């Protein structure tokens, strides 16, 4: 898929349909607005995560930098119990795994410009795949879990950037 196709497939048909879990790896994390037909107000992705987590969906978000100020502001209001956020400064991968059975793997960060929620003149040029291949999903989740669990931290040569491995956000 390319460009605006990301929003429909990854967000509307993927993230919004999660029943059990969402695992996200992204270099950049912003409070992307999620417009939907028939709705006056577009909620942010943080609000959507909050609603999904309160409904029982386990969400793990692994990102590399500091979330945008609007995202941090929303997260500070209340971090749901089932939404866990960790940071790894070396992370550059972009993946979204929904219910361990569907996955986006590509170039887009979890931002409006990346996932195509912005208008045609403001979105990034992105490429990615959406797959239900269990072997591809298993491989991506093995990599994600190795990062999430800190199995790559010991050999990391960026400790000066990440003095506390897999630090939780300071909200």
SSE layout and pairing:
Blueprint (H helix, E strand, L loop, with lengths): L4 H8 L8 E6 L18 H10 L3 E6 L5 H9 L5 E5 L7 E4 L3 E5 L5 H4 L12 E4 L2 H15 L23
Parallel strand pairs: 1-2, 2-3
Antiparallel strand pairs: 1-4, 4-5, 5-6
Question: Top keywords for this entry?
Answer:
6-stranded mixed beta sheet; alpha/beta; 171 residues
Question: What does it look like?
Answer:
This protein is of the alpha/beta class. It contains 5 helices and 6 strands; from the N terminus they run H-E-H-E-H-E-E-E-H-E-H. It has a 6-stranded mixed β-sheet, sandwiched between helices. The N and C termini lie far apart (35 Å).
Short overview:
With 171 residues, the protein is of the alpha/beta class.
Uncertain spans, ≥5 residues at pLDDT below 50? Answer: none
Separation, N- and C-terminal Cα atoms: 35 Å
Q: How many helical elements?
A: 5
Strand content: 15-25%
User: What would you report as the Rg, rounded to the nearest angstrom?
Assistant: 15 Å
The mean pLDDT is 86
What class, by secondary structure content?
alpha/beta
The helix content, as a percent range, equals 25-40%
